[in-house]
Write a structure and sequence with these properties.
The complex is a heterotrimer. Chain A is 69% helix and 1% strand. Chain A is mainly alpha-helical. Chain A is globular. Chain A starts with 5 loop residues before the first helix and ends with a helix. The longest helix of chain B is centred in the N-terminal third of the chain and has 21 residues. Chain B is built from 15 helices and 10 strands. Chain C has a 6-stranded mixed sheet. The chains are: A mainly alpha, B alpha+beta, C alpha/beta. Chains A and C meet through helix 1, helix 3, helix 5, helix 6 and helix 7 of A and helix 1, strand 1, helix 3 and strand 6 of C.
C-alpha cells in the first residue's frame, strides 16, 4: 500500500462505482459482453474474486457468463435478463429506482427522486436528457457518487459518506433482494450482490474512526 | 388604537363616484336581505330605463344598438325598454336577476368594460349570461309580447312558417333562434348558416322541363304555384321530375311509396325501404288532388301495407342539382370526419337500409350536424347500405 | 460541481476498468428556473376534469375542477397512474419472438421475458410484421379493430391513430359492437329504433317533477355515473341528491329490481325488489300476464304506436309451442318473487307515472337480448313512452345521460380514416371468403376455430383465420371472458402488438409492446359533461412523456413515416396545431349559437362553458306524431313482434321476447348443484374497467390483503368458515382465482360479486394456473348471448368458493417488491 496514494485509491473507487453504473444503465452490446469472456472484464472479475467478501457474487457472475456463452445469442440472452429484472415492471423484477422501495406508495418519482433533483439542482446538475430516467435510478446515483469521490480525490468528504448512507444504502438491500427473486442466468443478480458487498466494504473503509 | 380607527373611517368615507355607485347597489342588496320590504322598494326604484343607462357602459353600447332595431321603432308604436326584456316581470325572479346583475355591477365598479374595446371583448360572456337566463326561463320576457298562441302563421314567409310552427309546438325558447334581435351579436359570431350555404352551393340553376333533379336539402312543398299553401316538405337528396317552370316556382313530380297505416304522410323512395323522401301535410296526404295512386302491396317484414304514389306539387325554383354524386361526396366526407369520435365507425354497407336510421340516430349524440346535413348523411348511408353494396362483407 | 467521468476516464485508459466503463449520465444543467411552488394546469379524464399543480417536472397535487360539484374519489388515483411502477418505460419485444419471430414458442406468451429495443427497431418490427401479414396472407389475417375505453382527448384518440396508420398500409379485420352493450345495442334498433344504450334520456328535472315511481332495473347509477366517456363533470349527482330528498319526503318511490342492494339503493335509501339472478324475463312476463289478465294495459297506445302485440299474447297465455302460461305462479318458481307480489308490482307500475331505467347488466348475460326487449314490451303496455317522467330508458347510468344537452358542438377528432385511400400500400381486399367485420366478442373463437360460420344479426359470418392482433388503448385480457381459453387462442397467434402505457395482462401476452405516454403527458382537448355537452376543456400537458414513452400521435406518425407517408398522416401539422384545428372547428360549428373565445384565450383559461341545456323528453316527438317522427325500426313503430328477427330463424332470439333457461344459473338453475354461487362481474366502483387498477396507493384503499375484493353473503361465508378479510379461492371448471373476502348484507345467499377490471395475474403462463389477484374473467364463460348479437355473456357464471389455506402465492398482476403474505 505504500505506493498507493489516497488519490489513486479514490480513482479506483470511483471507477468501480462507474463500472457498476455502466452495468446497470443498459444492456451490454456484443463488444462489451465480449470483454467479459476474454478481455479486461475477465481481468477485473478475477481481481475482484480474490477479495473474500466478493468471491460468492463474482462466482455467480462467472457462472452466469458460462451459461450465457452456451446460448445461441449470448448478448440477447443477457439483454433479456436485464429487461426481466430492470425494465418490465415490479411484478417479477426489481425496478432500479429508490422511490419504489422507499415510498409508502411504491410509486415512481416520489420523495427520493425529489431529493436527488434538489441535490443536483443545488450543484447545477441534471440527468442527461438522452437517458431520460428518474434521478433516483441506481446508475445515476452511482455515477454521482463517482463524481463525489473524484471531486475530493485526496480525501473523503462528509458529503460522500452521507450520500452513500442516505441515498444508496437506504434501499440497496431491498433492491438486491428483489433482483434475487428473478430466475434467469443470474448475471445481474450477481452484479447487484457484488455492488452490495463492495459498498458495504467501502463504507467501512472510508468511515472516520 | 383610536388613531387607526380614525384613519379607517377617512378612507371609507372618501367621496368617489365609482365607489359610491358600487356601495349603493351592494348596500341595497345587503339591506334587502335583512329587510325584505325595504329591498322590494329599492328594487322598484332601480327598475327603470334611467337606472340602466345611468352607467355609460350601457348607454354607449347596448342602448344605442337597441335604437337601431325593431324593438325601438316599429309600426305598432310599442317600444321595448331595457327592463322589459332584462328584468323579469315576476317578483321572485326579479330578485334572482338582481343578484346576478351584481357581477356586471362589479365590472362597472372596477371599470373592466369602461371602453368600447373592453366591452366588445367581454360581450360574448355578458351575452351568454343573458342567453342562459332566457334559455332557463324559456324566453319569458319575449313571450309577454310575442305569444305563440296569438301568432298568425299565414302571414309569415314559407320558411318562417315551417320553423315557427315547429317552435310553437315545442314552446321553444325564442332566444334559441333570435339571438342578436335587439343588440349586436358578439364579434366572433355571425348568423350565417354554414352548412346550409355549403349545400346550396351544390345546387345547379335553370331547370328544364321533363328533367330529373335532386334536392340539395330539405325544401318546402306547396299545393299552388304562388307558393302560398303549404303541402309538406321534400327531404334532402330526393329525386323530383320537373313538370312546369313558372317564374319563381316549379311544379315537380315525386315518385314515391308510402305506408298506409296512419295518414300516409311520409314518402319513401322505394317499396319497403325506409328511405325518406319527405312528408306531406295531412290535407294533401288525404286528398286525391295531388297524387296518382299506384299498386299496393304488403311488406312482409313488417306486415304494413305500402302504396305507390306519384305526387305533383309546387316548390321554389332553386336548391336542386342534376346528380346525387356531389351530394354523396359531401355526405361521405361528413360521415368520415364527423362520425369518428366514438368507439368505432361502421362501414356504410355494414347495415341494411332499414337498420341505418336506428343506428344513425344512436350515433348523433356526440356529432353535431344540423338537420339538413343529418338527413343527407342518413340517406347517403342508406343508399350505400348492404342492400345496395355488392361488396362481400 | 464539475462532472468528471469522461475526462477522468481518458487518463485511466491504461487500467483495466477504463474500457468497461461507459459515458456518464449526469451533466451540467442550464440556468435553472427559479420556480418554487409550481404551476397549476387544467386537464380532463374519464374520472373528471381537474387542476394539477406541477412542480419540478412532477405532478404534485390534484384538485377537482371547480365546476365539478360532485367529484369522484377516484381522482385520488390519478397520480398513481402516472407514476405507477407498472408503467411501460421502453419499447419491448418478447424475447423468444425476437429470436424466432412467427416461429416462436407461443406457449411462452405471458412468461414476462422481454428484451428492450430502440423505437426505431420496434417500429421496424411492427411494420415488417404488417407487411409480412399482407404479403404472406392477406387482410383477413390481421385484426386491428378491437378498441376499449381509450384515454380521453380528441387529438390523441388512440383507436383513430391505429386505424388511420394501419389503414394507410392495408385493410384488416374489424369489429362491430362492444363488450358493454353488445346485446342491447343490437336488439334495440329492432324494437325501439335506436341502440337506446347510447341515447340521451329524459332530463332529470322532468323525471323529478313528473315521475311517481322509478324502477331501477339492474342499474347502479351512483356507481356508474362516476365515470364518463368524455371528460366527466358529474352533473347527474345533483339530481340524485334531489331524488334522495324526494324519496325522504315520500314524493317519489324508487325500487331497485336487483339481487343485490346497490350503492344507489344505499345512497338513496330506496326500496328493493329482490330477484334471482338472470331471471328478469320470467318476472317481466308475469307482470305482462297480470296487466293483460287484469286489463290494466294501454290498448290505445299499443294500437297507435306498436306492432305485433297480438303475435305476442299467445306466448303469454301459453297457447304456443311451449304450452306454458306465463302466470305469476310460474314465474315465482324461477325468479323467486311471490306470485302475489308480482301482481302487486304490476298494479303499481300502472297506477301513476312510472319511469323504468334499465341498466346494462341484464344484457351482459346469455340471451341478453330478451330482458331488454321484454322491458320495452312492458313499457309499451304501460303506455307512458314519450311522456315526461314515464316510459323506459337504458342509459341513465351512463356518461351524464339525463343531464339535458346544450346542443353545442363538441370538438371533432383526429381523423380515423386515411385522407388518400388511393395511396394505401396494400390494396388487396380479398378476405378469402372470411368476413371482414366480426362481432367484437368473437375474435377468440375466430383464432380457435377459423372458417367456422356463425349467425350474427341477420348475416352469416365466416370467422377469419387471424394470425396477428394489434391493440391500442385496449385490454382484452381484462374485458374478454375465460382466460384459460384465451391462453389457448394466443398459442395460435403469430404476432401480437400492443400499444399502452401500463403493463396490462394484454401487454404481458404480447410480442411487441410500445410505450405510449399517459393522457397527462400530452396536449389535447375534449368535450366535458359527455351527453350534456356542457363545455370544452383544455388538456394541458402536465409533464413530458416519462421514460421513452411517446404520444399516440408520435407513435403512429413513426409508423406512417415507415410507409413513406408521414406528411399524409399528420397533414403536416404538429400536436398543438391539431389541438388548435379541432378547437377552431368547434368554434366554427358553434358560431351561430354559442360564442367561443379564440384559441389562445381558451387555452389560457382552460375551458369554455356552454351553460345548461334545455329539458327534453325521450320519444316525445314520436308520441306526438308517430308518422313523421317514426322510430328507426323496420316498421317505424315499436315492434313487440319483429318479423325481421323471426325470419332469421334463430333458436335463441325469436320473433318476440321469450324466456330461455341459461347454460348455468343459481338458485336451483342448471349447474347450481356443483357451483352454487352466481358470480356477478359488474363495472367497478373504484376503477374504470381495468383502468386505475395499477394505481398502487388507491388500490390499497379497497384491496383485501392485496387481492381484489370478493363480496360475499354472510351465511354463505359462514357456512364455508370464511370471515371478512380472509383470502378465498374461487373456482369452477374454467379457472380459479384468489380474492379477499368482504362479507356484506348487501349480497343475498347464492350471490357473490367480483368487479370486472381486476388485473389478471396468473402464477405462471400455463393453462389453468391460479390467478393471484382476482380477475373474474378467469371464471366467466366465453359464450355468445345468441345468434343475434353474438355478444358477451359475462354475467352467466356459476362458481364455488372456499377459504384458502396455506401460503398464498404473491400477487403477480402488478406485484411490487414487497412480499404480500
Amino acid at each position: 500500500m505504500t505506493e498507493t496514494t489516497v488519490s489513486e485509491i479514490n480513482e479506483t473507487r470511483a471507477s468501480l462505482y462507474w463500472w457498476f453504473a455502466t452495468l446497470l444503465t443498459k444492456e451490454l452490446d456484443k463488444e462489451q459482453l465480449a470483454m467479459y469472456f476474454c478481455g479486461e472484464g475477465v481481468t477485473l472479475l478475477d481481481q475482484l474474486e480474490q477479495e473474500p467478501d466478493f468471491t460468492a457474487s463474482v462466482q455467480k457472475i462467472k457462472s452466469a457468463l458460462t451459461t450465457i456463452l452456451a446460448m445461441n445469442k449470448p448478448e440477447l440472452e443477457l439483454a433479456a435478463d436485464f429487461s426481466q429484472i430492470f425494465l418490465t415492471d415490479t411484478k417479477a423484477g426489481a425496478p432500479p429506482y429508490a422511490s419504489v422501495y422507499l415510498s409508502k406508495s411504491g410509486q415512481l418519482f416520489e420523495q427520493p427522486h425529489q431529493d436527488m433533483i434538489d441535490l443536483f439542482k443545488a450543484q447545477g446538475l441534471t440527468v442527461d436528457p438522452e437517458f431520460n430516467e428518474p434521478a433516483d435510478h441506481i446508475a445515476v446515483q452511482l455515477d454521482y457518487l463517482g463524481n463525489l469521490i473524484i471531486q475530493d480525490v485526496n480525501g473523503v468528504s462528509e458529503a460522500q459518506i452521507n450520500f452513500i448512507e442516505v441515498h444508496i444504502l437506504s434501499w440497496l438491500e431491498q433492491f438486491v433482494k428483489a433482483a434475487d427473486k428473478v430466475n434467469n442466468s443470474g448475471f445481474y443478480q450477481g452484479v447487484c450482490q457484488l455492488l452490495q458487498a463492495y459498498i458495504k466494504q467501502d463504507i467501512v473503509a472510508i468511515m472516520p474512526d | 388604537m383610536m388613531k387607526l380607527i380614525k384613519r379607517f373611517w377617512q378612507i371609507v368615507s372618501k367621496p368617489s363616484v365609482h365607489l359610491s355607485f358600487g356601495l349603493l347597489t351592494m348596500g341595497g342588496f345587503l339591506a334587502g336581505i335583512i329587510f325584505w320590504g325595504g329591498f322590494n322598494t329599492a328594487l322598484e326604484a332601480t327598475n327603470t330605463e334611467e337606472f340602466c343607462i345611468g352607467c355609460h357602459e350601457m348607454s354607449d353600447n347596448v342602448y344605442v344598438e337597441l335604437q337601431e332595431t325593431v324593438h325601438w321603432q316599429n309600426r305598432s308604436g310599442v317600444r321595448a325598454t331595457c327592463p322589459d326584456c332584462h328584468v323579469p316581470h315576476n317578483w321572485t325572479d326579479k330578485i334572482a336577476r338582481k343578484m346576478q346583475a351584481s357581477k356586471e355591477v362589479w365590472s362597472a365598479v372596477f371599470g373592466n368594460i369602461d371602453t368600447r374595446e373592453k366591452f366588445l371583448a367581454k360581450r360574448g360572456e355578458l351575452a351568454q349570461h343573458e342567453w342562459d337566463r332566457f334559455t332557463a326561463n324559456n324566453s319569458l320576457e319575449c313571450k309577454n309580447c310575442h305569444n305563440y298562441n296569438s301568432m298568425d302563421f299565414s302571414i309569415m314567409s314559407e320558411r318562417a312558417q315551417v320553423q315557427m310552427k315547429m317552435a310553437a309546438e315545442r314552446d321553444q325558447s325564442c332566444i334559441d333562434c333570435h339571438k342578436g334581435i335587439a343588440h349586436n351579436l358578439p364579434d366572433n359570431m355571425d348568423s350565417g348558416e354554414g352548412t346550409l350555404a355549403k349545400l346550396e352551393a351544390l345546387a345547379t340553376s335553370g331547370y328544364d322541363k321533363g328533367q330529373s333533379y335532386y334536392s340539395v336539402r330539405q325544401l318546402p312543398l306547396f299545393t299552388d304555384k304562388t307558393l302560398t299553401t303549404e303541402a309538406g316538405q321534400l327531404n334532402a337528396a330526393t329525386k323530383v321530375t320537373v313538370l312546369t317552370v313558372e317564374g319563381d316556382a316549379v311544379q315537380v313530380e315525386i315518385d314515391a311509396w308510402r305506408k298506409t297505416k296512419g295518414f300516409g304522410r311520409v314518402m319513401f323512395e322505394d317499396f319497403a325501404m325506409n328511405i325518406n323522401d319527405g312528408f306531406l301535410t295531412k290535407e294533401v296526404a288525404q286528398s286525391d288532388d295531388y297524387m296518382e295512386k299506384g299498386e299496393s302491396k304488403v311488406d312482409d317484414l313488417t306486415g304494413l301495407p305500402w302504396q305507390k304514389v306519384s305526387v305533383k306539387l309546387w316548390m321554389r325554383n332553386s336548391s336542386l342539382t342534376e346528380s346525387r354524386d356531389t351530394l354523396w361526396t359531401f355526405a361521405k366526407t361528413t360521415y368520415d370526419s364527423s362520425c369518428s369520435v366514438c368507439h368505432t365507425q361502421p362501414a356504410e354497407n355494414h347495415f341494411d337500409t332499414n337498420t341505418w336510421p336506428g343506428m344513425f340516430n344512436g350515433m348523433l349524440s356526440f356529432v353535431n350536424l344540423d338537420g339538413d346535413t343529418q338527413a343527407l348523411v342518413l340517406k347517403y348511408l342508406q343508399k350505400h347500405s348492404s342492400d345496395f353494396s355488392d361488396e362481400a362483407h | 460541481m464539475s462532472i468528471s467521468r469522461r475526462s477522468f476516464l481518458k487518463g485511466l485508459m491504461a487500467t483495466s476498468t477504463a474500457a468497461l466503463v461507459g459515458p456518464g449520465l449526469i451533466q451540467a444543467a442550464n440556468a435553472a428556473a427559479s420556480d418554487t411552488a409550481g404551476q397549476w394546469k387544467v386537464t380532463g379524464s374519464h374520472w373528471g376534469a381537474f387542476r394539477a399543480r406541477v412542480y419540478a417536472g412532477k405532478v404534485q397535487e390534484i384538485k377537482a375542477f371547480e365546476a365539478d360539484k360532485y367529484p369522484t374519489d377516484m381522482l385520488k388515483g390519478i397520480k398513481g397512474i402516472i407514476y405507477s411502477p407498472s408503467r411501460i418505460r421502453y419499447p419491448m419485444v418478447r424475447y423468444d419472438w425476437y429470436l424466432n419471430r412467427e416461429k416462436s414458442d407461443t406457449t411462452q406468451r405471458g412468461d414476462n421475458r422481454f428484451i428492450r429495443v430502440t423505437w426505431d427497431e420496434a417500429i421496424t418490427l411492427f411494420h415488417d410484421e404488417l407487411e409480412r401479414m399482407q404479403t404472406q396472407y392477406g387482410p383477413w389475417a390481421i385484426h386491428a379493430g378491437s378498441t376499449g375505453w381509450r384515454s380521453t382527448g380528441q387529438v390523441h384518440s388512440c383507436g383513430n391513430h391505429m386505424a388511420r396508420a394501419i389503414g394507410m398500409h392495408g385493410y384488416t379485420v374489424n369489429k362491430v359492437g362492444d363488450y358493454s352493450t353488445g346485446a342491447g345495442q343490437t336488439i334495440m334498433p329492432y324494437v325501439l329504433g335506436t341502440t337506446e344504450v347510447y341515447a340521451q334520456g329524459t332530463s332529470w328535472p322532468l323525471i323529478l317533477k313528473n315521475s311517481k315511481t322509478i324502477v331501477l332495473w339492474g342499474t347502479d347509477l351512483a356507481k356508474n355515473l362516476q365515470v364518463g366517456w368524455n371528460c366527466e363533470t358529474h352533473e347527474s349527482f345533483e339530481y340524485l341528491e334531489q331524488l334522495k330528498e324526494k324519496i325522504a319526503r315520500k314524493e317519489i318511490r324508487v325500487i331497485s329490481v336487483d339481487p343485490v342492494k346497490s350503492k344507489t339503493q344505499n345512497y338513496l335509501n330506496s326500496e328493493q325488489q329482490y330477484i334471482n339472478p338472470q331471471t328478469d324475463v320470467p318476472f317481466m312476463l308475469a307482470i305482462a300476464h297480470t296487466l293483460y289478465k287484469e286489463n290494466l294495459y294501454d290498448k290505445k297506445f299499443i294500437d297507435t304506436y306498436a306492432l305485433g302485440f297480438e303475435d305476442f299474447v299467445p306466448y303469454l297465455l301459453g297457447t304456443t309451442k311451449d304450452k306454458i302460461e306465463k302466470t305469476p305462479e310460474w314465474a315465482e318458481q324461477i325468479c323467486g318473487i311471490k306470485a302475489d307480489d308480482i301482481r302487486e308490482f304490476a298494479r303499481m307500475l300502472v297506477k301513476e307515472r312510472t319511469q323504468i331505467m334499465v341498466g346494462w347488466s341484464i344484457q351482459r348475460q346469455q340471451h341478453g337480448e330478451q330482458p331488454y326487449w321484454m322491458a320495452a314490451v312492458l313499457a309499451t303496455m304501460l303506455g307512458q313512452i314519450g311522456l315526461p317522467g314515464g316510459g323506459i330508458s337504458y342509459a341513465h347510468h351512463y356518461s351524464s345521460v339525463g343531464v339535458s344537452s346544450t346542443g353545442a358542438a363538441g370538438p371533432g377528432a383526429f381523423p380515423r380514416n386515411p385522407d388518400k385511400p388511393e395511396k394505401r400500400i396494400h390494396k388487396n381486399k380479398d378476405y378469402k371468403g372470411y368476413s371482414s367485420t366480426i362481432p367484437v366478442a368473437r375474435w377468440v373463437d375466430a383464432i380457435l376455430q377459423p372458417g367456422k360460420k356463425i349467425q350474427a344479426n341477420g348475416a352469416t359470418i365466416t370467422l377469419p383465420d387471424l394470425k396477428m392482433m394489434v391493440f391500442s388503448g385496449c385490454n382484452p385480457w381484462h374485458h374478454h371472458q375465460d382466460r384459460n381459453n384465451m391462453k389457448k387462442a394466443f398459442h395460435k397467434l403469430e404476432t401480437v402488438v400492443t400499444v399502452d402505457f401500463t403493463w396490462t395482462a394484454t401487454c404481458r401476452f404480447s410480442d411487441i409492446v410500445l410505450p405510449a405516454c399517459t393522457q397527462w403527458e400530452r396536449n389535447d382537448l375534449d368535450l366535458y359533461g359527455s351527453y350534456s355537452g356542457r363545455g370544452i376543456i383544455a388538456m394541458h400537458k402536465l409533464v413530458d412523456p416519462l421514460f421513452q414513452s411517446k404520444t399516440d400521435f408520435e407513435i403512429f406518425t413513426l409508423l406512417a413515416r415507415k410507409l413513406g407517408q408521414e406528411k399524409d398522416y399528420t397533414q403536416g401539422k404538429s400536436e398543438m396545431q391539431w389541438v388548435k384545428e379541432l378547437y377552431d372547428g368547434c368554434v366554427e360549428a358553434n358560431k351561430a349559437s354559442f360564442p367561443m373565445p379564440d384559441f389562445e384565450t381558451f387555452w389560457k383559461e382552460g375551458f369554455v362553458d356552454f351553460g345548461k341545456g334545455k329539458d327534453w323528453t325521450r320519444q316525445a316527438a314520436f308520441r306526438e306524431d308517430p308518422e313523421i317522427n317514426s322510430l328507426g325500426t323496420p316498421s317505424g313503430f315499436i315492434e313487440i313482434f319483429s318479423r325481421k328477427i323471426d325470419r332469421y330463424g334463430y333458436k335463441e332470439c325469436q320473433g318476440h321476447p321469450m324466456w330461455f333457461e341459461k347454460t348455468e344459473r343459481s338458485h336451483g338453475g342448471p349447474g347450481s348443484d356443483k357451483h352454487p354461487i352466481w358470480l356477478q362481474s359488474c363495472h367497478p366502483n373504484k376503477r374504470l374497467h381495468s383502468q386505475m387498477c395499477d394505481s398502487e396507493q388507491f388500490r390499497a384503499t379497497y384491496a383485501v390483503k392485496g387481492r381484489e375484493p370478493i363480496y360475499l353473503n354472510p351465511q354463505d361465508a359462514k357456512s364455508r368458515g370464511i370471515k371478512d378479510g380472509d383470502i378465498v379461492r374461487v373456482f369452477n371448471d374454467r379457472g380459479q382465482l384468489l380474492a379477499g373476502a368482504v362479507v356484506s348484507d348487501n349480497y343475498p345467499a347464492g350471490v357473490a360479486r367480483i368487479e370486472e377490471g381486476a388485473w389478471y395475474g396468473p402464477v405462471d403462463e400455463k393453462i389453468g394456473s391460479l390467478d393471484t389477484y382476482g380477475d373474474p374473467n378467469t371464471l366467466t364463460l366465453d359464450l355468445a348471448t345468441s345468434e343475434l348479437s353474438q355478444a358477451t355473456s359475462a354475467n352467466t357464471c356459476q362458481v364455488q368458493y372456499e377459504k384458502f389455506v396455506g401460503k398464498a402465492p404473491a400477487v403477480t398482476a402488478f406485484g411490487g417488491p414487497k412480499e404480500i403474505s
